[in-house]
Amino acid sequence: MRHFGHIAPEVRQRLFHQEPCEFGTDSPARVLSAALGATLYSPATRPRLADDIVKQAGLGVVSMVLCLEDSIDDADVVAGEENLVRQFADLAGRDGADLPLLFVRVRTPEQIPDLVQRLGASVRLLSGFVMPKFTEERGIPFLEALSSAETASGHRLFAMPVLESPELLYRESRVESLEGIARAVDKYRDRVLALRLGVTDFCSSYGLRRAPDMTAYDVHVVASVISDVVNLLGRADGTGFTVTGPVWEYFRVPERMFKPMLRTSPFLEGQAVELREKLIEHAMDGLLREISLDQANGLLGKTCIHPSHVLPVHALSVVSHEEFGDAADILRPERGGGGVLRSAYTNKMNEVKPHRAWAERTMLRAEVFGVAREDVSFVDLLAAGIPG
């Protein structure tokens, strides 16, 4: 699979200076963690789940979570498990079908070895498990269960803990909770693909819900948690993990209080005025702003609950030609001693040592999402990826 693999090769050639790389379930964890992109959640109870997965893969989705936790009723868990096993068997029988990375969000550690055993040979389609309300105390049993299931099945499985517990949110317990989470995920570093943020649960603790014309970063009690998570768990010194962006809850807005957040000029340049109007109508201007703020705050990828959110996440994850040029200049072998140089775009300073970690991170993103041509903007990428 590859990002933007659902669009025609000749269109990709026109859009990309460097096309996104191909990757698969057996790719290195370093690549997969960066390539998750917009991770689409779906209730595990959907009766045509296998068809849904194949359809979404054909529309550019590269990672999905099949949820047995908050998205389904407590009374439906057993039926959801049975449905998952049936749907995986269905997928396993579809030779040649392109599938995304598939994860299952469970409720208890005991579900992990049980599901792996019940999946049988179709476990080869499973990339791992999402672990809810993760703390050191609650998380270790999940990680131990995953390790045991991996050994028993002989199939590599990854963990994606969700950081969403009140202990992490509350000021008096935050540091202790973060330090405990850090100990747990460091012990199982090879198995932890990414850390996910449960911002809806954070808001719930205070009876809050952000409006469609606001981002998670406008809710300061939430923004402070994101900051602290990245501070301890997202460092670029080799100790950090990929931390993914919070879910965007909206997909259509009947009425808005504030002006749209999308400037008109980029859409005029690309002659995509109708696209801008469509994005605003479906609350995508708020989503686009939040994706930009995610990236500015050290997050990569995003939890998504609607297919329409996938393309904006991927379009804004593509590395611009300018970013790529700056990163390449900074990482040239002859720059190993440091120093300062002017950007090839003559609009900024590139300081080799302080900007090296940014450049390395940018090159990894360029590998999995590609590099846009000099005259290609995110508007062009959005327009090219919309079906029909």
TrEMBL record:
Single Gene Ontology MF annotation: lyase activity
Cofactor: Mg(2+)
One Pfam family this sequence matches: C-C_Bond_Lyase
KW Metal-binding (keyword) present: yes
Protein name: HpcH/HpaI aldolase/citrate lyase family protein
Alphabetic keyword roster: Lyase, Magnesium, Metal-binding
Organism of this sequence: Streptomyces coacervatus
